[in-house]
From TrEMBL:
Lineage summary: Bacteria, Pseudomonadati, Pseudomonadota, Betaproteobacteria, Burkholderiales
Organism: Caballeronia glathei
Protein name as catalogued: Histidine kinase
Modified residues (4-aspartylphosphate): D59
GO molecular function annotation: kinase activity
Pfam families according to UniProt: Response_reg (PF00072)
The Response regulatory domain, residue ranges: 7-122
Amino acid sequence: MRKFKSLVVVVDNDEQVCRAIKRLLRSSGFASETFRAVDQLLEMIDLTPSFRPACIVLDIGGPGLTGLDAHHRLADSGIPVIVMTARDEIGLREQALASGAIAYLRKPFNGQILIKAVQLAINGSRD
């Protein structure tokens, strides 16, 4: 039986993106859980104190709360956040990084870049 590293949560309203990232994370040894909306993740964190992901990969877009709104709400949790987006807006990267995001990934991105960002977020290194 395979022992997984830390739990990484993926939030994206596109089910195919969630599945693809989940497969990538699992193939790199990370346990993962996906949510289709930021509200679902925040509710899970609020209602289940034992639910503590090591890292969150968060799409900036999506229905309901935006990824940046959620990132602000998660700021005090100490959970590292990687933001991703398909949008190409001036200042969005700076806004995300200024709010404390570990990395900013523009879709589509190379899978190895995501894995390195997750490793950096969790371990503080790129091992």
